[in-house]
What we know:
Helices cover 66% and strands 5% of the residues. By secondary structure, it is mainly alpha-helical. It has a two-stranded antiparallel ribbon. A two-stranded antiparallel ribbon has the order 2-3. A two-stranded antiparallel sheet has the order 5-6.
Amino acid sequence: MVSGMSVEKGTNLTDAGPTRNDRLTNLVLWGLVIAYVVATILRAILPNLNTFPTILLLFPFTLIHGMKRYPWKGIAIFIVITLIVSGIMENLSILTGFPFGHYYYTDALGPKVTLVPILIFPSYIAFGYLAWVLSILIVGGVRRGSTIFTTVAVPLVASFMMVAWDLSLDPIASTINQTWIWTQGGGYFGVPISNFLGWSLTVYIFFQLFALYLRKSGPTNPPAIPITHYLQIILVYMWTGIGFVLNYPFRPTNTAITDAVGHIWQTSDIYETTAISAIYTMIFISTLALAILLRGRLVLKDESAMRMAK
Length: 310
C-alpha cells in the first residue's frame, strides 16, 4: 500500500515477484494487448479491415484481467449487471427514444438479440471494465465497507471515461459507417446530445450497482496488484484513443454524407473532430492515469528503500 494514502485511495501496488501462473497470465494478457494495438493500426491504414471486430480481442482480455483483480464471482457479477442494464436501456431507447434518443441498428454488426446486435454487449463489458479500473486508479478502490464518497465517486468518474470513448466513436460508427441510424439526427455530426446523456446515465447505473455490490460483499483486503495490471489497462484505453487519431491522416477521400434528416456532413470534418476529441479526452485520461500510477510506484520504491535502511 502506498504510504500517505488512505486505504481506499491506494493502488495496492506490490513489488512481490510473480508466480509461474502470474507470468503465464501476464504473457497472455500482453499478447492480447499487442494484438489489439496491431489490429488498431491495421484498421486505420487498411480500410478493408474495418470490419474486423477488435472487441474479440478485448472481451477475453477483460475476462482474464478481471479475474486477476476480482474472484470469478466478482467479474461474473460485473458482466451480468452490465448485460442486464445495457440490454434494457438499449431496447427501451430503440422502442421509445429514452434514454439515448431515437435510433435503430442496421445489419452491419451481424446477429441481434431482440433489437440489439450481439457484439454491442461485449463492447459495453470490455470498455466498461477499462473505465472502471482507470477510475479506481485515479479515485481509489471500492471494497467492502468503503465510504459513500468512494462508492459514488468511482462510478461517476468511470461513466465520464466511458462516454469519452463514445464521443469519438459515435459520429464515425453512425454517420459514416451507418452501423446504427439516428432517425432524428443531431448537432454532433448527426448524433444527438441525448445519446451522450443517455450513455452517462446507463453506464453510471451499472457502475453504481457494481460498486454497491463490492461495498457490501466485495473483498475487504483485495490482492496486491503489480504495476503491469494497470499498465495494460492504460495502454489499451490510450491506444483506442490513438486509433481515432490515426483515422484522420489515413482517412479515405473526403465525401459528403447525408444523415437521416437530410443534413449533409463532410467525412473529413468528422475524422478530424473525433481525432481532436480523442486527444483531449481518452489520451489525456490515459496520461493522467499513467502519471498517478508512476507516482505511486516511486513512493513505493522510496518506502522500500527506507525500510531497508532501517
